[in-house]
């Protein structure tokens, strides 16, 4: 099974071309290839498939084998792969995901390889029941969740996948793994949630620390960066164009007036090879 490995703002991914190939049970395959010791090692796995409604279809799986509707860092890696390997020919690409069709602009380098990728991420979903969260409000902004007897102020929204955003002053004062796991699996979130701990540097710059649904502690999250900038902008902490520092890279997130989101960043091809299935 020929694979490619990419990293994008800290998330690493295994990619397979499924256009003329059947990979069997995707959930089991993701669990195997993403294993850090018994597999290749990655936060997620993607499969390219053909689409009836867009140029191609992207299927995304977390390292625990669960399927995610969308992945922001993943879709940039996916775009670089399909462009650099001529699976698509245009620099404007439409990609079908389980969170709708996403539109991509590829910015190439002097060798005509994808250098930077701009993704039209569409609109965030704010309504409680659509996120979903068991709080029936039109917007779930600045609510309180109690973890280990302590109050945390959080906001929730969906940008492709469900997200919780918590602004923090000092990252050293919180236990990301403990809080992340407990919030991800909290009964408030029937489909679980990704958790973003956000430190505001100033209105144009933030640092994000990530806990992902289905993948645990990771070095970044594209949809989470979008979600964090949307909430920061609504609350008044952030402008509408923000530099995001994840632990593994940098992204630019831009919002237009009605909160349509654009994400700009790169993706790096790390390896290609053959996965031996057992
Ligand atoms: N790392 C991702 C999100 C992966 C999806 C996920 N963890 C889920 O909610 O299933 C990103 O860059 O947007």
CATH class of the largest domain: Alpha Beta
The CATH architecture of the largest domain can be given as Roll
Task: State the shape.
Answer: globular
> How many beta-strand segments?
18
What's the CATH H-level superfamily name of the largest domain?
A: Diaminopimelate Epimerase, Chain A, domain 1
Q: What does the radius of gyration come to?
A: 18 Å
Give me the strand/helix succession: EEHEEEHEEEEEEHEEEHEEEE
Hetero ligands: 2,6-diaminopimelic acid
If you had to describe this structure to a student in words, what would you say it looks like?
- By secondary structure, the chain is α+β, with helices and mostly antiparallel strands.
- It has two domains: 2-122 and 265-274, Diaminopimelate Epimerase, Chain A, domain 1; 128-259, Roll (Diaminopimelate Epimerase, Chain A, domain 1).
- The protein is 16% helix and 44% strand.
- The chain is built from four helices and 18 strands.
- The protein has helices spanning 26-34, 72-84, 176-184, 222-235, and strands spanning 2-8, 11-17, 44-49, 56-62, 67-68, 92-97, 100-108, 114-122, 140-147, 150-159, 161-167, 194-202, 205-212, 216-218, 241-246, 249-255, 261-265, 268-274.
- β15 (241-246) and β16 (249-255) form a beta hairpin.
- The chain starts with a strand and ends with a strand.
- The mean pLDDT is 98.
- Residues 11, 44, 62, 68, 71-74, 161, 194, 212-215, 221-224 line the site of 2,6-diaminopimelic acid (API).
- The site of 2,6-diaminopimelic acid has 18 residues, from α2 and α4.
- Keywords: Amino-acid biosynthesis, Cytoplasm, Isomerase, Lysine biosynthesis.
């Amino acid at each position: 099974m020929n694979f490619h490995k990419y990293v994008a703002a800290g998330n690493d991914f295994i990619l397979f071309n499924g256009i003329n190939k059947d990979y069997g049970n995707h959930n089991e395959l993701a669990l195997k290839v993403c294993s850090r010791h018994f597999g290749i090692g990655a936060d997620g796995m993607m499969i390219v498939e053909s689409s009836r409604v867009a140029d191609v279809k992207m299927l995304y799986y977390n390292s625990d084998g669960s399927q995610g509707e969308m992945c922001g860092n993943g879709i940039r890696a996916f775009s670089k792969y399909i462009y650099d390997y001529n699976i698509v020919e245009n620099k404007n690409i439409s990609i079908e995901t389980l969170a709708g069709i996403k539109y991509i602009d590829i910015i190439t380098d002097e060798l005509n390889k994808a250098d930077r990728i701009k993704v039209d991420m569409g609109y965030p979903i704010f309504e409680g029941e659509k996120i979903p969260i068991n709080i029936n409000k039109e917007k779930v902004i600045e609510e309180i969740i109690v973890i280990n007897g302590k109050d945390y102020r959080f906001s929730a929204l969906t940008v492709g996948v469900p997200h919780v955003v918590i602004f923090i002053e000092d990252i050293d004062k919180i236990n990301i793994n403990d809080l992340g796991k407990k919030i991800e699996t909290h009964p408030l979130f029937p489909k679980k949630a990704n958790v973003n701990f956000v430190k505001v540097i100033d209105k144009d710059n933030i640092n994000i620390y990530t806990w992902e649904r289905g993948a645990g502690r990771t070095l970044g999250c594209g949809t989470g960066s979008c979600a964090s900038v949307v909430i920061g902008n609504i609350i008044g902490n952030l402008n509408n164009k923000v530099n995001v520092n994840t632990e593994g890279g940098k992204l630019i997130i831009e919002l237009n007036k009605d909160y349509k989101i654009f994400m700009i960043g790169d993706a790096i091809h790390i390896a290609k090879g053959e996965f031996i299935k057992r």
